[in-house]
Amino acid sequence: MGVLKKFEQRLEGLVNGTFAKVFKSEVQPVEIAGALQRECDNNATIWNRDRTVVPNDFIVELSAPDYERLSPYSGQLGDELAGMVRDYAKQQRYTFMGPIKVHLEKAEDLDTGLYRVRSRTLASSSSQQAPQGPAAGPSGRPGAPGGYGYPPAAGPAAAPPMPAAPPPGRPGGYGYPQPASQRPTQAPGASAGGRTRYWIEINGNRHQISRPTLVLGRSTDADVRIDDPGVSRRHCEIRTGTPSTIQDLGSTNGIVVDGQHTTRATLRDGSRIVVGSTTVIYRQAEG
User: Fold this and answer.
1) Exposed, middle or buried: residue 249 (CB in 10 Å: 0-12, 13-18, 19+)?
2) Cβ atoms of residues 245 and 264 within 8 Å
3) What average pLDDT does the segment 176-192 reach?
4) Pairing assessment for the beta strands 51-53 and 45-48 based on DSSP bridges
5) Which of 16, 126, 183, 189 is 20 to 30 A off residue 51, Cα-Cα?
6) How far apart are CA 256 and CA 253, in angstroms?
7) What is the pLDDT of residue 6?
8) Which has the minimum average pLDDT: 25-39, 217-231, 262-276?
């Protein structure tokens, strides 16, 4: 049985339906669980042959209405989500540098049904200590040195020793930046001599992007036609480059990129684009 399915079943069986109201909210706990899994995958850092480290401290930002619905259960829900992350990490052979924590926060700039996940790696006292000084987030906001004040906890007893310091990373991440050389794929032009391939996946079907721009829409004139009544005739356009971007073309229902309603966004490998009721996965890879 999959980790997400087990997580959902545990929630349904808790305290005589404690989470019945939660499941009526626009953002479902299982959606958050899936986003936490993706956050681990996207920020996995290879330390050595025996250890791949993933974030252990997560903040889930919710719209005000969703936060009000979920906050009464934040403690229990956070524990369940942390347990799900632990199970997923075991399945993927990921390890952590400290205890797993999941927090909910309210974000006034998000509409109902949208959310953001931020993560960082916080070292416990028995493993590698955090670097000195604040870590810059996506908006340049400094993070508190040493994390959010969690008490140190013992790491895995049989864990291999950590290097003296984290490997050099690329700027722009929340918490400790992910080294570009260790990511599954790299941004266009990130490695010399490699040719970047671009494609999108819709309902399991792959559509190669062979030109600098790709128009998605319901019209037969679109480069990729999406048969969805919620999609406009020329809904949005993907531009490949450094970095790749997506632009709304004045559609009726707009676009949602990685959980955020927007008119323009930067794309990375694995970005999830929602148009109408259709999910489009953006992919890029070297070679």
Assistant:
1) middle
2) yes
3) 37
4) antiparallel
5) 189
6) 9
7) 72
8) 25-39
Name the pTM for this structure.
0.43
Please give the Cα distance from 231 to 50 (Å, whole number): 46
Beta bridge partners of 281: 201, 272
State the amino acid at position 119 in one-letter form.
Answer: S
d(CA 282, CA 204): 12
- Measured distance CA(210)–CA(206) in Å, rounded: 12
Contacts 24+ apart (CB under 8 A), 125-132: 125/152, 125/153, 125/154, 126/152, 126/154, 126/155, 127/97, 127/98, 127/155, 127/159, 127/162, 128/97, 128/162, 128/163, 128/164, 128/165, 128/166, 130/176, 131/165, 131/166, 131/176
In angstroms, rounded to a whole number, what is the distance separating the alpha carbons of residues 71 and 77? Answer: 9
| Span 17-71, pLDDT tens digits | 444 444 444 677 777 888 898 888 888 888 887 788 899 999 999 889 889 888 8
Show Cβ contacts of residue 123 under 8 Å, excluding neighbours closer than 6 positions: 97, 98, 129, 130
Confidence grade of residue 175 (pLDDT, cut at 50, 70, 90): very low
